[in-house]
């Protein structure tokens, strides 16, 4: 028992406090950790990486992206074959020399996200809308690839024989 007490005495209060440990875990940012690994160092602002949501409905693929502070003029969307690319930039705000920041966590810069789409996207009727910092992309499916409901017994006779009158 005395051995445990001695080791516990050498551990800092912060390491023993479960609330401090939880606070540290909750504040962990994997993107900041990657920036540090890639040479950005502490205090470097990571580049802007928007979050996307992609879902499929029976007649379209729906993409939503959080792009706060991105303007339409700074956004480019392209479709080449089955490759959808969304790229753009979020400009950094002007910082005055005499301003003192206590936290500077917002990220800025260029981004590019690419998605490989399944066959059957109707590239002639894609709709894009940027409203309240959210990009909505609707990529409709071609009618021939949309699911069709088949009724049981609707085909008539099986085997090709004509019904007898």
UniProtKB/TrEMBL annotation:
<comment type="similarity">
    <text>Belongs to the small heat shock protein (HSP20) family.</text>
</comment>
<dbReference type="InterPro" id="IPR031107">
    <property type="entry name" value="Small_HSP"/>
</dbReference>
<feature type="domain" description="SHSP">
    <location>
        <begin position="43"/>
        <end position="155"/>
    </location>
</feature>
<dbReference type="InterPro" id="IPR008978">
    <property type="entry name" value="HSP20-like_chaperone"/>
</dbReference>
<dbReference type="Pfam" id="PF00011">
    <property type="entry name" value="HSP20"/>
</dbReference>
<feature type="region of interest" description="Disordered">
    <location>
        <begin position="146"/>
        <end position="165"/>
    </location>
</feature>
<protein>
    <submittedName>
        <fullName>Hsp20/alpha crystallin family protein</fullName>
    </submittedName>
</protein>
<dbReference type="InterPro" id="IPR002068">
    <property type="entry name" value="A-crystallin/Hsp20_dom"/>
</dbReference>
């Amino acid at each position: 028992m005395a051995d445990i007490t001695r080791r516990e005495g050498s551990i800092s209060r912060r390491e023993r406090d479960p609330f401090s440990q939880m606070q540290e875990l909750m504040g962990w940012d994997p993107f900041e950790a990657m920036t540090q690994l890639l040479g950005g160092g502490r205090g470097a602002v990571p580049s802007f990486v928007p979050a996307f949501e992609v879902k499929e409905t029976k007649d379209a693929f729906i993409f939503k992206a959080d792009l706060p502070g991105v303007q339409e003029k700074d956004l480019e969307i392209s479709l080449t074959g089955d490759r959808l690319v969304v790229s753009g930039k979020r400009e950094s705000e002007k910082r005055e020399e005499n301003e003192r920041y206590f936290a500077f966590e917002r990220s800025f810069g260029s981004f590019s996200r690419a998605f490989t789409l399944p066959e059957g996207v109707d590239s002639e009727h894609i709709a894009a809308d940027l409203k309240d910092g959210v990009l909505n992309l609707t990529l409709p499916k071609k009618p021939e690839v949309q699911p069709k409901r088949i009724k049981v017994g609707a085909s008539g006779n099986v085997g090709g024989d004509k019904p007898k009158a």
